[in-house]
Fold this sequence. Notes:
By secondary structure, the protein is of the alpha+beta class. The chain is 30% helix and 24% strand.
Amino acid sequence: MMRKKSILLLLAIATLILTACNADNKVIDFPIVGTANNTSLVIERVERTDTATQLTIRGFHFSGNWIRIPAKTKLMAQGKEYTLKGSIGIEIGKELYMPEDGDSCFTLMFEPLPKRCQTFDYMEGTGKNDWRIYDIDLTGRKGTEYPTTLPQGMKKVPDTEGLQAPQYTYTFGETTVNIHLLGYRDGCYKKMVLPIYSPLDGQRTVDVTMDPSTGEGTATFIQYGTGYTNVVIDGNGYGHFLLAPGETVELYVNLAAINKTLRYKYPDDITIPNIKECWTQGSIYDAVNNLPNPEMPPFLPDALFPDKEIRYDMTADEYVELLIEKRNALNNYFATHAWHPWTKEIQNANRLNLTHLDYITRDYRRRAERKPHIPEDYTHDPILPKHYEQWFADIDLENPWIFLVPNSDELINMAAFIRPENRSEELHQWIIALAAVKKAYDNTLTDGELQTMRSWKNPFFADVCEDIQKRTRAAIQHSAKNMEHVEEVAPEALFQTMIAPHKGKVVLVDFWNTWCIPCRNAIQTIEPYKTGELASNDLVWIYIANETSPMTTYEEMIPNIKGLHYRVSDAQWNFLTDKQFDIKSIPSYVLVDKEGNYSLRKDLRDHTKMVNTLKEMIKK
């Protein structure tokens, strides 16, 4: 009996020892972080001993750029500081230049953290540009479903029993979104925007006004029909949600979702934590917005996609049959997942609009390998209306879910290839309405076209087009004083016309558009330099956008951007970007020296490089 008790006692002691070890978590791989003000540093491992806290860090940056760890870098935990003691793979205070793949690894050693410490912060300093990573977890959590600061009533899966599936909202009006950043810490963001997608007017991007002291803010905007809205902070995505026009909605953003962005940087097979990014309160779409994230497989089998089976010399019949076969295979694969029925509908609509759509609109046959037996003058068998009708045969184009995900406008544009006699009345009206909205933004919609839309049963389309054209005309009238006008200039003479008046000065020409988030971020970053380090009468800023920038949005933005503004035609833009400068993406910059010589400068996307280059050229 005594022996049995002794054994039990030993087991109990061993259990306590193991429990204590687990509580201390001596080694944590890929700890979850609360938030950060950068995505260049990823903590791969935290190792804790009685004498040190060791951080294994992966550094990501553009090739040729560098990372520097200042000597003042410290850890903060339980109100105390823990200093940096040493490093391996990087010299403290010295630049570590990135290799070609932009991926580096090094180790930092700090004073030991308290044994029962559950979180800590990594702090380079308190300056605006000092890198900081907050609330680094030491408990071993792999994800977080509900942040502690999310309102209590929202910490549950929405009850959708008996609810009708969400429908597209055929209204328009002013929408207000009140934003709350959960887990907010000082300096953990610089810029927040809400890109909004709708079938009628594509993508628009709304700037968010935030209070940097509280992490709360507001965005108010005109909305046409249901909007699928992304949350973007400093270029990183923090989820999406649906909005109906005219609503006032509370949006709660989980800043811990930055963990997904950090893991996506890895070229290796690294598990992406399943962290829900945002929730809404006050929208008719709350139930669908607040569903848990679906558990997604890390990789889908190659056999579900057509890429490896596409041949350069396929007929259109063969190609479309392959696409339909793979679309059905992918749908069947996901049908086996134990997801909420609405989640399945969303995933199906997303795959239709984002994945399958791309194969037929871009015709991937042209990307396939050209075999030696295929002649150089080979002409691809064209995809005809009958092929689009075949592709759409099994798709319910009146399914409301199709309009509740991004790129639904592209799907409708593709459906326009269906012969009119084979379209439903609703689809036919959507196709006409999309073209009419574009005309309304261009101020070219005629009274006759508007009157035709007035004869439809649903007044929504006509009302929207009338409102857009009214706002466009007001914007044109108001913006006359802010824009340069070159409508009559031939594309071949356009660039010289723009720069000729400024000979003897340095000219930076920025190709951008209002819908381009990187463009807008770059402009916002550079703007303060115009009245600071780059304030000079010898420097001219020229901004070129095209007609994809809606006049209403363009007119609102350009007064806040110091420089000369040109909104050029499609023909002018295409000549400049395709023939004159071979511009593949924006923002892109053309630099003109004082003698009038110019060149495309991709390196100036590095803002430090841009500022230093312009300073030197102004001095010459």
